[in-house]
Amino acid sequence: MGLTIGVDIGGTKIAAGVVDEAGTILETHTVATPSTPDGITDAICAAVGNAAEDHTVDAVGIGAAGYVDDKRATVIFAPNIDWRHEPLKDKVEQRVGLPVVVENDANAAAWGEYRFGAGKGHEDVICITLGTGLGGGIIIGNKLRRGRFGVAAEFGHIRVVPDGLLCGCGSQGCWEQYASGRALVRYARQRAAATPESAGILLGLGDGTPEGIQGRHVSAAARQGDPVAVDSFRELARWAGAGLADLASLFDPSAFIVGGGVSDEGELVLGPIRKSFRRWLIGAQWRPHAQVLAAQLGNRAGLVGAADLARQG
Amino acid sequence: MGLTIGVDIGGTKIAAGVVDEAGTILETHTVATPSTPDGITDAICAAVGNAAEDHTVDAVGIGAAGYVDDKRATVIFAPNIDWRHEPLKDKVEQRVGLPVVVENDANAAAWGEYRFGAGKGHEDVICITLGTGLGGGIIIGNKLRRGRFGVAAEFGHIRVVPDGLLCGCGSQGCWEQYASGRALVRYARQRAAATPESAGILLGLGDGTPEGIQGRHVSAAARQGDPVAVDSFRELARWAGAGLADLASLFDPSAFIVGGGVSDEGELVLGPIRKSFRRWLIGAQWRPHAQVLAAQLGNRAGLVGAADLARQG
Amino acid sequence: MGLTIGVDIGGTKIAAGVVDEAGTILETHTVATPSTPDGITDAICAAVGNAAEDHTVDAVGIGAAGYVDDKRATVIFAPNIDWRHEPLKDKVEQRVGLPVVVENDANAAAWGEYRFGAGKGHEDVICITLGTGLGGGIIIGNKLRRGRFGVAAEFGHIRVVPDGLLCGCGSQGCWEQYASGRALVRYARQRAAATPESAGILLGLGDGTPEGIQGRHVSAAARQGDPVAVDSFRELARWAGAGLADLASLFDPSAFIVGGGVSDEGELVLGPIRKSFRRWLIGAQWRPHAQVLAAQLGNRAGLVGAADLARQG
Amino acid sequence: MGLTIGVDIGGTKIAAGVVDEAGTILETHTVATPSTPDGITDAICAAVGNAAEDHTVDAVGIGAAGYVDDKRATVIFAPNIDWRHEPLKDKVEQRVGLPVVVENDANAAAWGEYRFGAGKGHEDVICITLGTGLGGGIIIGNKLRRGRFGVAAEFGHIRVVPDGLLCGCGSQGCWEQYASGRALVRYARQRAAATPESAGILLGLGDGTPEGIQGRHVSAAARQGDPVAVDSFRELARWAGAGLADLASLFDPSAFIVGGGVSDEGELVLGPIRKSFRRWLIGAQWRPHAQVLAAQLGNRAGLVGAADLARQG
Q: Which residues span the membrane (chains A, B, C, D) (predicted)?
């Protein structure tokens, strides 16, 4: 099989890219994300149609946030789009005339990193994506593991604090409430409110108030050594690393790959994550340690991974 | 391949059984467990030798507590025996002249249940064993998943309470401190000490003191409706079920199998575990629910599973 | 000193009552609560003026939610009214021509119960009020203990769960997030969503959805034996009782008084609170146990207490 | 009243000191602590007798670990001595012919600091003692507050982590498991085991193993900048400061005094405690903040405080 198309459905834009067997994106078409479910389906088809014009493509892979069924055909539930049991595969196949594979977007990104990024050469890899929330994917024995019903690898919602913070999922104490971009901002706001004298740089980057602090301010302030910003990253890393240690107890992979916007800060966040991971790894003195690697594909991982999953059929 | 031998290394005795392709144990030989590492190796060989006398067997599978390497040959670390990087496969093969597979005992038990017990017909199964501690095994795509280095499925040591109870592993807040036979006894003792007037049956079964309460007393008292004993099982079930919900978020199996001595109480403990599982299952209204099943093989699971793994090679 | 006036500032109405030395309310005047800070001050003066028309009164006591300074004159901060360093005592004194004492409303209610309700005869009493939130007051050596700066007894905001639920105060894991009317509703909604089949009565009392459940539904359903409602009260009681055990370690009072809307359910909630209190009381076998008593004055406690504090001067 | 004697019962020695009205110790007599309950009573009387030889003294104050009744006469329960309902006051009075006051040792130390140390000039003071465990005392309105039954101020046993570490008291998650000398050593050992390469100084001070680390090693290593030692103090300070914030919500004192062996490190530990206190203080922007002060009397506080309590009668 030659070229395939990967589709990434974002909150502001939908991107369809033509991808070759080496994971290279030959060209990309983007459209603004419509506000209605049907509009989004239309937009996906339009983007795919445009991408397919200049190339001969064999299949389409779509990465979608939410639960995707075990047939990789239906979006059972999407958190941000009003899709409930949406037969996305059938709808798009009918319109674009190509075989379609639908995949959870974090799974697609994990596959992208495994095939063409930080995971190359590993057979057993766990990817986590520290974006606004926390997602991820599981590769065991060179295969993406989706679970019996398609909804495995919902890492963000394992409970790490009993009776902990409320989560959008309805539960409490979910990992993504403590290790995600949203958590990072909360840490920074709480600390800046409590000790503003240690948050001069951070507060200066926003509107001067704790509430005005955004994720990009925390990153920029941390690079400049702002104590509150650095401490906020460290807190996030404590939770991220402890969670990876749990995943090591469960999956024992040879590598973890950490992606998502938060990981763009590189060693600023990966160093503390590795330290926390070692701190909490059970049996650390007896077992080989999994590597904790930075993702390499950035926000292309999902599109490239979806395209490759479509190629694999 | 025809008959194989499975070996189960217990704290008081070592059992070697001849097992056929259907998982039936044809005969079993047991010896008392010696106190020295070398003595245990000797005893394993002796038990295997006895078992092999009356049958033609093709291979031997040994289930051992602890970390077993990815080649299923070496016990890297055992919690109860002073084995460190013990080349058990080589030693036993040289002595008994049969191919040997070494496997973590909880993995072996999981495989036994998957092949011949409650897991028959499922492709993706997670087993947990509620014994003194909490162990388990992972079957995905009809294969036992051991991790890259052989030490996956250490369920008992995922952290469910930050800054929680000290665990023998050196960490804190491990699941097995809250969901295991040992936890059950702790719950019962604490409650009996605080409200002895609600623990009349329970205290009457032991020596009358909270410290004298043993696991079997809790089971017997719960069957007689002792409020403290029933409440102790319920507390254990709260933690067990919540942990299964986490495992569902991660693995999305079609079934969980709950084994180990605690599960011998059947619905007394499985009912509350199922209830807690549903309570904490993320996305419960959107996804198919994994079944929570009682193990069927009892304490034969490890021996039968080890024998079958040896058959598979 | 003879008669005094007590003022209770509620969310919907402001009540001023003429109270005698025995704590009896002779008459009450109420006005709707205005929406502006100045309007509320006006309304307080009006209500006091009306109450003072038919009786000779010597002083006025005002119970206000929020921080009241150590001079009992200024509302430093109020959570529901836009008062910041509001000199309420001076303003009202000037307008009504009577000596005024301002007191935190939960402190006033605690004093009321201590003087004329469940606390009569005790020298050392801790009151907690389980209303929408959780407040309380401290009586040691027959005196209300307000702290050096007037802001003691903020029971609702001690941290009972590290990294726990967000609280309106900006912190996390505050006791009132786990033991209050608001917590009760959250427990009921979560449980009804997870196991609707056990919440038939409860859901039937509202609009049929978990989100439609209100506090009064939980109370009514619990009285009818609805499992989810009963379990929700039990969960609240677990946290309330454990917190009382902490307060016993700190204050060692002879009695706890439990008031507020939640306590209107009587033994339905007090029984489980007592049980949890005993469960967590440190050194229970060695020490005399504080009584856990139901408040007796209902929502009159604050008004009566404020009037009496004014009498004491 | 002129001179009085204060008695401090330690694990290795019993000290009796003659103390004047200014809190100055004129002379001290010590004897080795006997191993039997009666032997200890004998030793107390002997030490008091010796101390009374050269001075005219009016009364004796004895500080004892454990629960002391509201009459300050009987040791209800002692954790380290086999005293149960021991009538210590009567026994010693009969033997030494002087009025005796028995007081909990942490209460006595708190009183000493309030009268002659860091608490001078404050009316409302909370003292915490970070020794092997965590104790303390409450002064409100210039009086020591002992609770109705004599067992108030058991700060070490408020629950700060639900389902947390087991405590010697039989409960779980007690504050002293997270903020005490014992906790400090645990933090250091855990961290040194996980990241020995960051604990070179610390490990070098002991026998080279994590288990060999003692409290004095952590202090010495922290002063030399050992990362693990510094981090261990910071962890202790996080819990200590958060607990002080809770005590501020409850008691609202003008000052906290931090004593005990851990506080000997001065700003190394007090600085982080203050930072954590501010981080968790509720309503920090609206209220006056209590000072967090270092104790001044060191291990003399208990003896001096007991002597002064005897003087007050």
A: none
Please give the helix or strand (H or E) that residue D4 lies within, else none: strand D3-9
Q: Measured on CA atoms in the order C219, C223, C224, C228, is the torsion positive or negative?
A: positive
pLDDT tens, residue by residue, D199-232: 999 999 999 999 999 999 999 999 999 999 999 9
Are D141 and C143 within 8 A, CB to CB?
Answer: yes
Asked whether residue B161 carries a pLDDT value surpassing 80, the answer given is yes
Q: Which residue of D has its CA nearest to A162?
A: D162
Q: Please report the residues numbered 90 through 149 in chain B whose beta carbons come closer than 8 angstroms to any beta carbon of chain A.
A: 122-124, 138, 140-141, 143, 145-149
Closest Cα of chain B to A237: distance in Å? 15
C158 to D246: CB separation less than 8 angstroms, yes or no: yes
Comparing CA positions, the residue from D230, D206, D231 lying closest to residue D217 is D206
Distance from CA of B73 to the nearest CA of A (A): 15
Structure tokens of A291?
């590597």
Sign of CA dihedral A228, A229, A230, A236: positive
Give first-to-last CA distance, chain D, whole Å.
10
Cβ atoms D299, D113 nearer than 8 A? no
* Whole-angstrom distance, CA of residue A217 vs CA of residue A206: 7
Would the CB atoms of D290 and C253 count as touching at under 8 Å? no
pLDDT averaged over every residue in chain A: 95
A277 within 8 A of A241, measured Cβ to Cβ: yes
Share of chain B above pLDDT 90, in %: 93
What is the three-class DSSP state of C292?
A: strand
Kindly tell me if the per-residue pLDDT of B1 is higher than 70. Answer: no
Residues of A75-93 as b/e, b for ≥16 C-beta within 10 angstroms?
bbbbeebebeebbbbebbb
Tokens of A257: 């790959």
Q: What is the pLDDT of residues D22-78, one digit of tens each?
A: 999 999 999 999 999 999 999 999 999 999 998 999 999 999 999 999 999 999 998
Query: Is D20 within 8 Å of D59 (Cβ atoms)?
Result: no
What DSSP element (H or E) covers D192?
Answer: helix D181-194
CA-closest candidate to residue D72, choices D29, D36, D40, D107: D107
Global ipTM = 0.96
| C195 close to B (CB below 8 A) | yes
User: Over chain D, what is the mean pLDDT?
Assistant: 95
Enumerate residues 6+ apart whose C-beta is below 8 A from B225.
Answer: B201
Closest alpha carbon within chain C to D251: C152
Instruction: Report the C-alpha gap between A162 and B172 in whole angstroms.
Output: 14
Number of CB atoms found within 10 A of residue A125's CB: 29
Chain C's closest residue to B281, CA to CA, is C194
Residue in A with minimal Cα distance to C165: A165
- Which three-class secondary structure state does DSSP give residue B310? helix
Report how far residue B292's alpha carbon sits from residue B258's, in angstroms, rounded to the nearest whole number: 7
Instruction: Identify the structural domains of chain A with CATH numbers, from first to last.
Output: 3-111+300-312 (3.30.420.40), 122-295 (3.30.420.40)
Residue C244's closest CA among C216, C215, C269, C219? Answer: C269
* A163·C163 Cβ contact <8 A: no
- C163:A172 CB<8 A: no
Helix, strand and coil content of chain B, in percent to the nearest 5, comes to 45, 25, 35
Using one digit for the tens of pLDDT, what is the confidence trace for A267-278? 999 999 999 999
* C169 has a chain A CB within 8 A of its CB: no
CB contact under 8 A, C163 and A165: yes
Cα(B303)–Cα(B40) distance, rounded to whole angstroms?
Answer: 16
Q: B142: alpha, beta or left, given left = phi > 0 and alpha = psi -120 to 50? A: left
pLDDT of residue C292: 98
Return the residue in D138, D282, D293 with the most chain C beta carbons within 10 A, the one to mutate for interface testing. Answer: D282
Using a CB-CB cut-off of 8 Å, the residues of chain A touching B126 are none
